[in-house]
Amino acid sequence: MRWLVLAALLAAVGTPADAVAQPLPAREVEQMRIVFPDSVQQGAMVLGKVPAGSRVSYDGRDLRVTGYGTVVFGIGRDATGPARVTVTPPGAPPRTVEIAVTPRDWPLQRVDGVPPATVDPPPEVAERIRREQARGAAARVDDTPRTGFAQHFIQPVEGRISGRFGRARVYNGKPGSPHSGMDIAAPRGTAIRAPADGVVTLAEPDLYITGGTVLIDHGHGIGSNFLHLSRLDVATGDEVKQGQVIGAVGATGRATGPHLHWGMTWFDVRIDPQLVLARAAGSPVPGTRVVVPPRAGAGERIRIVAPPGSRVAFAGAQAIVPAAGELELEAPAATGEAELVVERPGTSRLVFRIAID
Ligand SMILES: [Zn+2]
């Protein structure tokens, strides 16, 4: 994912006035080293950098900040954004950073041939399922100082992606919840490796819906869950290192064949492991990136990057970004500060303040 020093990626229009601190001159924000991605997709894990010792809050929750100033949070499948993060550096007033959230499509997926008793559980197991789900939920809401979440995640099993995060699902013709993770098809017995460091918070060989189940806490509210395992190689409380074998692929619980279901969460928000892997691979998320220079000389031509079809308003002129995804614009002749507005198709509006000198 392309990172952009949040020079002036502030103040998306339509924000309640009390939620937004005064935008800062670009120089000052750069010195403050407040860095977040310019936009993210639904289901993303968002990593940010803030000055060490800052207080950071998002969505009503104070985020734990590492000694290096790293913070993390998750964007839900149905979040519409913009995501607002309030950063209060030591001895400085609070700033609000706004991050656009790009909507995604969630096509329907039909899953047939699922064991009927896992789609319509008999009444006598309802209590068991409730109890197991409560234990799973309790095991994944910790806020711990572990920092595995900041590693470059690896895919726990190689194989064909047989199910994607977020898709609405119909099991044996009956509508179910959206798919909460990614499915990787692999032969029964294939080793499953921890995608990042953490501690095992739950290891159960035989839960009714999820079968052999392992939960790992990667720190700061980020967790992984691994379902349908045929074998468990870890126990609750075990420390695991990235790449360590934690169990083996199976088809236990509600499954049609051997595969690993890998889910990720930020507290109770489900996030998309494939986006976490894409970020680790350094691949930009296509179609969402906006790059605007923080400053320009008076009357100079500047180049911006934005998704094709975006509307851009700058210095009294309007333009549409062409298919190449780049646009040249002329900065105003007067020095000072100029506003550049980017409206991307189907997403929130971004307002940049460019220093003209
Ligand atoms: Zn699955």
Observed structural traits:
357 residues; mainly beta; Immunoglobulin-like; Glucose Permease (Domain IIA); five-stranded mixed beta sheet; 9% helix; elongated; disordered N terminus; binds zinc ion
Total helical segments: 4
CATH architecture of the largest domain: Distorted Sandwich
Spans of at least 5 consecutive residues whose pLDDT stays below 50 are 1-31, 283-287
Largest sheet properties = 8 strands, antiparallel
The hetero compounds bound to this protein are: zinc ion
Radius of gyration: 23 Å
Q: What is the count of β-strands?
A: 30
CATH superfamily of the largest domain: Glucose Permease (Domain IIA)
* Percent helix range: under 10%
C-alpha end-to-end distance: 30 Å
Domain count, please report it.
Answer: 3
Give the class-level CATH name of the largest domain.
Answer: Mainly Beta
Q: Can you characterise this structure?
A:
There is one protein chain. This protein has 357 residues and is mainly beta. It folds into 3 domains: 2-102, Sandwich (Immunoglobulin-like); 108-277, Distorted Sandwich (Glucose Permease (Domain IIA)); 285-356, Sandwich (Immunoglobulin-like), CATH 2.60.40.10. The chain is built from 4 helices and 30 strands. It has helices at 26-32, 116-119, 126-139, 273-280, and strands at residues 3-5, 35-37, 39-41, 45-49, 55-58, 61-63, 70-74, 83-88, 95-102, 109-111, 160-163, 169-171, 174-175, 181-185, 191-193, 198-207, 211-219, 222-229, 231-232, 239-240, 245-248, 259-266, 269-271, 295-296, 301-305, 311-314, 317-320, 326-330, 336-343, 349-356. The strands form 8 sheets. Strands 11, 14, 16, 17, 18, 20, 22 and 23 form an 8-stranded antiparallel sheet that branches. Strands 3-9-8-5-6 form a 5-stranded mixed sheet, with no helix packed on it. Strands 24-30-29-26-27 form a 5-stranded mixed sheet, with no helix packed on it. β16 and β17 (211-219) form a beta hairpin. The chain is elongated, with a radius of gyration of 23 Å. Residues 1-31 and 283-287 have low confidence and may be disordered. Bound molecules: zinc ion. Residues 163, 179, 181, 183, 261 line the site of zinc ion.
